[in-house]
Design brief:
The complex is a heterotetramer, with two copies of chain A (370 residues) and two copies of chain B (404 residues). Chain A is 53% helix and 17% strand. Chain A has 370 residues and is α+β, with helices and mostly antiparallel strands. In chain A, strands 1, 2, 3, 4, 5, 6 and 8 form a seven-stranded mixed sheet that branches. A two-stranded antiparallel ribbon of chain A has the order 9-10. In chain A, a hairpin with a 2-residue loop joins β2 and β3. In chain A, α7 runs antiparallel to α8 and α9 runs antiparallel to α10. A four-stranded mixed sheet of chain B has the order 1-4-5-8. In chain B, α7 runs antiparallel to α8, α7 runs parallel beside α9 and α8 runs antiparallel to α9. Chain B is globular and about 70 Å long. Chain B is α+β, with helices and mostly antiparallel strands and 404 residues long. Chain B has three domains: 117 residues, Butyryl-Coa Dehydrogenase, subunit A, domain 1 (Orthogonal Bundle); 106 residues, Butyryl-CoA Dehydrogenase, subunit A, domain 2 (Beta Barrel), CATH 2.40.110.10; 116 residues, no CATH class. The chains are: A alpha+beta (370), B alpha+beta (404). Chains in contact: A-B, A-C, A-D, B-C, B-D, C-D. Chains C and D meet through β7, β9, α9, α10 and α11 of C and α9, β9, α10 and α11 of D. Chains A, C: Its cofactor is FAD.
Chain lengths: 370, 404, 370, 404
């Protein structure tokens, strides 16, 4: 088990960090957030087409770079640190993982290279009205009509679902749950951008009315759902670790320079010990991340447990750290113009995106065999 | 629910009846101006009915009753969403400080219009460089004949955009240690040189303002309390603030209140889940324990023991309660907390409440400051070494900014 | 609703506090704890026979003083503060409450005056092997034999069960659960003092072998169990509040005088804020106690909710406060010779005596109608 | 479970085999003397097998391997209850400090007997008046010719009753500020004037001692490091201590370990309760996160980044983990945690573990001290004002006691 990055991986981190410092500074993040697009196409091109980071877990023969989850997590960490406005999580993580897990040759051929190059943006739609993964089966049904499959109903909480070229949806087919690929411009597909707690993480509700879809064959649909969810947990964990590192840095810098009662606030134990607790949470989360990413690449049998661990542990931890960051900034951290709140909102959203805390804990308990 | 005898019971019956007859329906689609006008009308009606300034002296327009009646009113009012927000600072902080420290002229001039809802007040203490350390503020008031001339910037001023008057804390002597050279003034917010800019907070709303003073002239009788005695006046007002924040009634519509989260759990089918039930029970217990503590403080006040610094327990407890509620809300609503359909007008309520929660442990004195107050003033623990205690203000480094 | 003590109640508090300062100082508590008796008969006589404190909730016509729960809670607070080695909780609270709730005239006549005067020590035995209230029905059965009721089986976790003159046991009779009174010297009654985490709170396991018993008639047995449990929750809350006040006092005194790094440790925020949190917990617990005690006397309809609130809230809170007290004393608080650990152990035991935390929360949730 | 290649794998196989062949069965009914003798035999066997001092220099009896092998050994050993307790202080703290600071003669003389289990070490730092503030200690060592004469009292000394040697921190110059006048000595615990009294802790057991020095003579070569350079030596040793405590393997029989609490839940029929399951999952997650953090520290150490003050994260995390486990234990076992039949020998295990938990957040530096270390040394936050930094020790007030 390897829990530290090697020099190439550290190099990758620096490259991405520099790119984002230049092209996704907070001012740019806010422009995109205030604009209506939900992402920055130019930045997305740089990340995907130019640097080839969207296909890190896709083999070279299929259009990717054949690196791995450890590397993808390095990228996700940096994207999380910067709150970079790109549909990487939706497309380069969730959608790519779904296509890979589905083991449907047609789909792979049609989608994978585009997803890996970033020309195609993918999104995954497993959730219905309550947001729980898999609950789309209650609100989306598939039927065979006029020689093809069509979908009827709706899904919600689809990350980057408003801009996706391809949506991979989990629906109830006559024989049970199944996965379907739907083109973003398919007939009868309506998309509504949701209002979100986190203004930097766009989500959409999709309405299907006899919308033509390709049914994925190959792997067991429920197993695919689980596999994608595990990888989503690891990807979200990576974002969280990046966020934690950034808010800790911000908070330490601020409390070093902010003077109250004649000395820097960071010299007060109430503040200093708060920073120490943030650091402990961050360091442990990073350790969990490295393990889960390593498991995804090198010990797939350990991944279900590692992913459940990562999700149950780092979801609440990163929100606590983000909330502490706002707190330790005092009044200024509560203003719109300071960036602390963006992390607070992202962390809360991240914590809930795969379902509420008790579901995450129960998933871990199950996998532990409690 | 409460079993009481005598005059308080009669008072309760009167309040209940009056509220049933007079409490306005919540309004959603009115303009801010219309809302303010309605709030003023309601406050005037409260005054006329004898429910404004319940514990304030009769001679200045109050009712001369006890905290018990105030509690009864608060309890009964909790069932309504009364439009009293614009008057909270005036009723909870500035007014009580005027009662404590104002001259008879000041009380005569300001209290009745405040109670009748004719004048709105704000509090002008915090500055960008002076948050927890209020006494390090840099806004200057320089004597000019019998007048004062004020220059500087305030921040986090709730309601400044609507306010007619403000309680301003300014530095009148920078050559003495920071606590000794402050004076409190009553400032006319419509005076030349006062400008107000809304300050957007992390909810995206602007309940706060920045207030700039540019050569604002104040007359001699604007001083509240003593010249250079402003710190004592500020401590008085901050004490009222903590009690006011800590003891403030949970709003019926507060989406983070136990009742509403329990209702949300029922509506979303989560109320049978043992984990959710346990968390709701703990939330209720924390909320109820705090309410009972506040009631006890009021009963003690009636028996002659003022709450003093124990108001900080209420303030701190209220903030901790909200943070617990944020966790419970996420547990119940999951991803629905984080995203909602634009057509769903109530959808954002929970998100806004979650985004407003950090204010509870920052505004009005951070949790850290409250714990220090409890440690120092309630428990009598030894103070931290105070490095700036005896240093003339001029020589101090403050905030993160260059000195004014 | 009255949440502050009146002058008579405050006078009662002073009287009990002075008595215990004289007759139950920590040295005496430790002597009794190290001896084998489990309580101090002389102190018990003073508290009960001399001051008449064992019959506070018993009417004067039945041998008590006709005061109320508010007053009994004042006494329990002081007993908790001092960790006084008397069977007050078992006898003057649990046993008295059980007899009152049972509404069995014979039992009242036989037991109440003795319990109220302290000549008779009572104990209540509702728990079997898992310690949960009511679980005695699984381990203790009653049968009619030779013209009388006999009990067979065992109960456990009986507070002061080793010294009780009368045990009130909850058992399974042929028609369902029922309450029985058993004499401490009854034939076929075996008593084993348990080993306890808290050396100041004796508990026993009782074995019954055809042990003759009086069956209580009158009130519904399950309702009696609930009523006694509610009152037990309030009584334990009173002890807890007393303990919290004492450990806070200890901790504040110590941290004022202990110097490290050139200044009193109580001047450090890490310590000061810890004391502040203890104070907040204590103040809120006291408020809950006053409400619950008031409800027991003046608003019986509110008692079930108030008692569940008191138990769910103050059980964990008092352990946290006691643990913080040990922590803020540093090394010396961890020694046997310092009293901090006695409160730590009492608080942990008190938290678990009516069942684990989730049961307390669920009980509250039920009564709230969640 | 771990996938590794190469020499570490070979090493693991060797450890696993050796432990399977040589790990003694846990013993319960032996006298302390028999237990100690058995522990010494086992340590000698470990040494002979090449598993003692895995990362220590070969020339002094160590194996000259890396933290990776040490981790492998710890991982494998976690499946056993090895009788290595008496050697923990020596192996984890005193030995590594000797390796860092000892003269060649000292290393030659002391390290091999330590590794072979022939000599037991203890650490003599804390005093009644010097806990968190170790540098305020009052034990004096006064030069007498080339010898030193020691007088004073130490406390919280683990294993002093069995120890052959101690690492003693004493004041050699009271006229300079407290950190500057300390010296570390190697003291023979059997020397005249050393007396050891067991100290009962809140579990009722006496794992600690008080150690009294009454005119104890030490030779010149007893100095470890520099005369008056004892603080640097102490910092070195405390660093090893935190890593040793934080990184120490959870014992298989620790009743507060996740595995055992999960087993307890199954045994008591509580494992199907959703609340219990959730709490167990969180406990596992906290335990695993900490284990992974420790593994990461070791891997970083192997790549040349020593843990430094980050050992405090492990120490703090370990204490917080235990407090969480105490809560989970009560949830699972309820009243059974608080009382048990005298005939049930295992009954007290949980109670003892609960009563031992406060030690985790006090001994070896309180949680408060650890957070300060992380804030100061890892995050580089500004220090608190240090009121005693430049004051000669003679003039300081220390502890709660009159000055010696």
């Amino acid at each position: 088990m390897r829990l530290v990055l090697d020099s190439e991986q550290r190099q990758l981190r620096s490259t991405v960090r520099e790119l984002l410092a230049d092209h996704a500074p907070p001012t740019r993040v806010r422009e995109v957030m205030d604009g209506g697009d939900g992402y920055d196409p130019a930045l997305w091109r740089r990340v995907s087409a130019e640097l080839g980071l969207a296909g890190l877990v896709v083999s070279e023969s299929r259009g990717g770079s054949g690196a791995g989850h450890v590397e993808r997590c390095v990228v996700l960490e940096e994207l999380g640190r910067a709150l970079a406005p790109v549909p990487y999580l939706a497309s380069a993580a969730l959608a790519v993982d779904t296509v890979l897990a589905l083991e449907d040759a047609t789909l792979e051929q049609r989608l994978l290279a585009g997803l890996a190059s970033g020309e195609r943006i993918g999104a995954v739609a497993p959730a219905g009205d309550d947001g729980d993964w898999g609950s789309a089966t209650a609100s989306l049904t598939a039927g065979w009509r006029d020689g093809g499959w069509v979908l009827d109903g709706h899904v919600s909480f689809v990350v980057s679902g408003d801009v996706a070229d391809t949506v991979l949806a989990y629906a109830t087919a006559p024989e049970g749950p199944a996965w379907f690929a739907v083109s973003g411009d398919a007939a009868g597909l309506g998309r509504t951008r949701l209002r979100t707690l986190d203004p930097t993480r766009p989500m959409a509700r999709l309405e299907f009315a006899s919308t033509p879809a390709h049914r994925a064959d190959g792997a067991d649909p429920a197993a695919v759902l689980e596999a994608v969810r595990d990888r989503a947990a690891v990807a979200l964990t990576a974002e969280r670790v990046g966020m934690m590192s950034r808010v800790l840095e911000m908070t330490v810098d601020y409390t070093k320079s902010r003077v109250q009662f004649g000395r820097p606030v960071g010299s007060y134990q109430a503040v200093k010990h708060g920073c120490a607790d943030m650091y402990c949470a961050y360091q442990q989360a990073e350790s969990v991340l490295r393990y889960a990413a390593w498991a995804a690449d090198h010990a797939p049998a350990e991944l279900p447990l590692a992913a459940a661990l990562a999700q149950a542990h780092t979801g609440p931890a990163s929100f606590r750290v983000a909330a502490d960051a706002v707190q330790l900034h005092g009044g200024v951290g509560y203003t719109w113009e300071h960036d602390a709140h963006l992390y607070y909102k992202r962390a809360k959203t991240s914590e809930l995106l795969l379902g509420a805390a008790d579901q995450q804990r129960e998933r871990l308990a199950e996998r532990l065999g409690v | 629910m409460d079993v009481e005898d005598g005059p308080v019971d009669t008072f309760r019956a009167r309040v209940r009846q009056w509220l049933a007859d007079n409490a306005p329906e919540p309004t959603v689609n009115r303009s801010p101006e219309e809302q303010l006008a309605a709030a003023k009308r309601f406050q005037a009606a409260l005054y006329d009915a004898g429910f404004a300034g319940i514990t304030w002296p009769v001679e200045f327009g109050g009712q001369g009753l006890t905290a018990a009646e105030q509690q009864v009113f608060n309890d009964e009012a909790a069932d309504y969403d009364l439009p009293t927000d614009p008057f909270m600072i005036g009723m909870g902080m500035c007014g009580p400080t005027l009662v404590d420290l104002g001259t008879t002229e000041q009380k005569t001039r300001y209290l009745r219009p405040l109670l009748r809802g004719e004048r709105i007040w704000c509090q002008l203490f915090s500055e960008p460089g002076a948050g927890s350390d209020v006494a390090s503020l840099q806004t200057r008031a320089v004597g000019d004949g019998s007048d004062w001339v004020v220059n500087g910037q305030k921040v986090w001023t709730s309601g400044a955009q609507q306010a007619d008057f403000g309680a301003l804390l300014a530095r009148t002597d920078p050559d003495v240690p920071k606590h000794q050279g402050l004076t409190m003034f009553i400032v006319d917010m419509h005076a030349p040189g006062v400008s107000v800019r809304p300050l957007r907070d992390m909810t995206g709303r602007a309940p706060f303002n920045e207030v700039y003073f540019d050569d604002v002239r104040l007359p001699a009788d604007a001083v509240l309390g003593e010249v250079d005695g402003g710190w004592a006046a500020a401590v008085t007002m901050l004490g009222h603030e903590r009690v006011s924040i800590g003891g403030s009634v949970r709003r019926r519509h507060d989406p983070l209140a136990y009742t509403n989260l329990a209702e949300l759990a029922r509506r979303t089918g989560r109320a049978d889940d043992p984990v959710v039930r346990g968390e709701l029970a703990e939330l209720y217990a924390a909320e109820r324990a705090l309410t009972l503590f506040n009631s006890r403080l009021r009963q003690e006040a009636d028996s002659g023991t003022p709450p003093g610094a124990r108001g900080s327990v209420a303030k701190l407890g209220g903030a901790e309660l909200l943070w617990r509620a944020v966790r419970v809300a996420g547990l119940i609503a999951g991803a629905r907390t984080a995203a909602w359909d634009p057509a769903d007008e109530a959808g954002e309520e929970l998100a806004v409440a979650i985004n407003a929660t950090p204010a509870s442990s920052i505004a009005g004195g951070t949790n850290q400051i409250q714990r220090g107050i409890i440690g120092d003033r309630v428990l009598g623990l030894p103070k931290e070494p105070q490095v700036d205690r005896d240093v003339p203000f001029r020589e101090l480094r403050v905030g993160t900014q260059p000195r004014a």
